[in-house]
Structures are given as C-alpha cells and as structure tokens.
C-alpha cells in the first residue's frame, strides 16, 4: 500500500469516528503533512478533541492534551528543574509539550506568560528552560482549540502567536442528518456495537517521509505568482478597489505566502496529484488568511470581516490559466 493510500485509509477511519466535519479532517491531515500548527475554533461539543486524539492514535504518535486555564504556569506546560532530595542536584522534568501531537485545549484561557513560552515551542520546535535549550520531537505539532462564544476569563492571542498557526479552521454545527447519525453512533457505542480497533499502518517516521514528498510537489511559476499576488493584495487593498481603502489595519506577512504554499501542496497530494492548481490555492486561502487579517474600526463599521475580505480578494485577483 502506498503512503498516499495509507493516508486515505486514515481519513476513512477518521470519518467512521467523526460525523461530517469534512473540512476539519482535511485540514488536520494537511497539518500532519506539513508540520504546521492548527487553530480550531467552534462551539463546544463538535468533537474537536476526539478528532485530534483519533488522529494521533492513527499515526502511533505520542499525544498529550493540555487544558489551558488562567492559573497555568509556563513550567506546567514546558517542564521545569526539580530538586533531587537525595543528591541535591537539579534535574529537568519534561512537560506535556514534549509530545508529537499536543492538543492545546481552550488556548485563549492561558495567561500571556504561558502563551509567550508556547511561542518558542511553536516557532522553533524547541524549549528553553534553566538556561538550556531542548529540542522537541521531529513530528511536533500543536492543534489548539478556542471557544468563540465565551470571552469571560480569556486572553486574546497576540498577533505574533496567531501568525504561527498555519491554519485557522472555523467549525459549525452539523446539519440535522449528521446529528441524527451522531445519535445513532452514540447509541451503538453504549450498546457495545463499536467496530474493531483501527489497525494503523502509519507511523511518525512515515509521516516525516510523506512531508518530504509533499515538499517536492510541482508548483508552476504562474501559481506561485498567484499565491504571492493574493497575499500581497492584503497590504494594498485600496489599490485593487477604492471602496476597500483603510478596511484593514494590518495585512498578511510573507509567512502567509509560505503557509499557503505548504497547505496547497499537501491538499493536492491528498487528492492524488503531484502538482498544485489555482483551485487548491483558493480552497486553502480562507484558513490560511482569516487569523492574519486585522480589520480596522472603519472596516468593522462597514460590516467587513476577515472572511468577506478574503472572498473579495478571490474576486479581485486574476486567476492564472493552468500551464499545458
């Protein structure tokens, strides 16, 4: 079985556990294939935690869920030096961040100190504590959740940290047919009608190998220019359409272009192609951009949102023709 087929088998297994949420499953696999971190935003009860845990099990990755709370300290996440009462020496005890897949549950409940410490781990894949820097696992990946409905006791994520997330996926409630299926599966679970355990063939080593394959995807110059044009347009909206003058306070940085390239390449690979199309770029653009755009007061007064601005960008920036 090819490694692409193994990823399709993993997705099929995820679909047997998670009803609907097709976009969530695709974006989680894209994150796995690129090593990019993902911010999942949606109301409670949409199986975000279950999806991440099932993904970790499917690739035999070490997994840790961290419940972020206002009283959390950096050492609780990163680890700290502990005194050995027998020898009198300090030894470092690793925190839960030293796992291959980390679920940062309700990340916006953590105080700024914890978020700052997490920034190094996400950006550099390393942790500095006690004057020593320690590398995180090669497959290290953060999948964070936040609840958009409840703001009491939360700390908005700073722009620098938001920019470290490759994708920001917004989830919605299932439709009635999907919710009916959820009820039936839950009933089957309670009556012991679960399917046999998933026999995962993927391993962290195979995931790393797949990442190399994704990095070798062919991207034509016209598609590269299209990506750059979309991201650069966020910094000069007024030049594209005078109506949008001053709508954004801050546009996206070149890190967004890199994230778009990696995400589109992984998406194409999952579709069984070895090249990236403009459609791949358009599909991933909202998740790559929505957390990187800061709408101005004027823009909010005009009812602009990051998602509506992104749709406008797709309309304004010419789509290149595929090379023959």
From TrEMBL:
Superkingdom of source: Bacteria
Record protein name field: ATPase AAA
SMART domains: AAA
Database matches in InterPro entries: AAA+_ATPase (IPR003593), ATPase_AAA-3 (IPR011703), CbbQ/NirQ/NorQ/GpvN (IPR050764), ChlI/MoxR_AAA_lid (IPR041628), P-loop_NTPase (IPR027417)
Pfam families to which the protein is assigned, alphabetical: AAA_3 (PF07726), AAA_lid_2 (PF17863)
CDD domains with a match to the protein in the record: AAA
UniProt cross-references to Gene3D superfamilies, sorted A to Z: Magnesium chelatase subunit I, C-Terminal domain, P-loop containing nucleotide triphosphate hydrolases
Domain AAA+ ATPase: start-end pairs: 34-175
């Amino acid at each position: 079985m090819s490694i692409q087929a193994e990823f399709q088998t993993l997705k099929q297994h995820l679909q047997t556990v998670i009803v609907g949420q097709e976009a969530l499953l695709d974006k989680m696999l894209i994150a796995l294939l690129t090593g990019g971190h993902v911010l999942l935003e949606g109301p409670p009860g949409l199986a975000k935690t279950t999806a991440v845990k099932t993904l970790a099990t499917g690739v035999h990755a070490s997994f840790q869920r961290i419940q972020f709370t206002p009283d959390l300290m950096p050492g609780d996440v990163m680890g700290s030096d502990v005194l050995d009462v027998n020898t009198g020496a300090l030894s470092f005890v690793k925190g839960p961040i030293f796992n291959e897949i980390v679920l940062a549950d309700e990340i916006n409940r953590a105080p700024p100190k914890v978020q700052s410490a997490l920034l190094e781990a996400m950006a550099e894949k390393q942790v500095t504590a006690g004057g020593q820097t320690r590398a995180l696992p090669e497959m290290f990946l953060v999948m964070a959740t936040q609840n958009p409905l409840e703001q009491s006791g939360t700390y908005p994520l700073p722009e620098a940290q938001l920019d470290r997330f490759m994708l920001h996926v917004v989830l919605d409630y299932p439709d009635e047919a999907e919710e009916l299926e959820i009820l039936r599966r839950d009933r089957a679970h309670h009556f012991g009608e679960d399917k046999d355990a998933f026999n995962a063939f993927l391993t962290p080593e195979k995931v790393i190998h797949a990442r190399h394959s994704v990095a070798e995807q062919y991207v034509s110059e016209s598609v590269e220019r299209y990506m750059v044009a979309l991201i650069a347009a966020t910094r000069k909206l007024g030049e594209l359409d005078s109506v949008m003058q001053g709508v954004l306070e801050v546009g996206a940085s070149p890190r967004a272009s890199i994230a778009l390239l990696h995400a589109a390449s992984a998406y194409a690979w999952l579709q069984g192609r070895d090249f990236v199309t403009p459609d791949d770029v358009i599909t991933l653009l909202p998740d790559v951009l929505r957390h990187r755009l800061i709408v101005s007061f004027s823009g909010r007064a005009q009812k602009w949102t990051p998602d509506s601005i992104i749709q406008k960008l797709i309309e304004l920036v010419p789509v290149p023709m595929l090379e023959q």
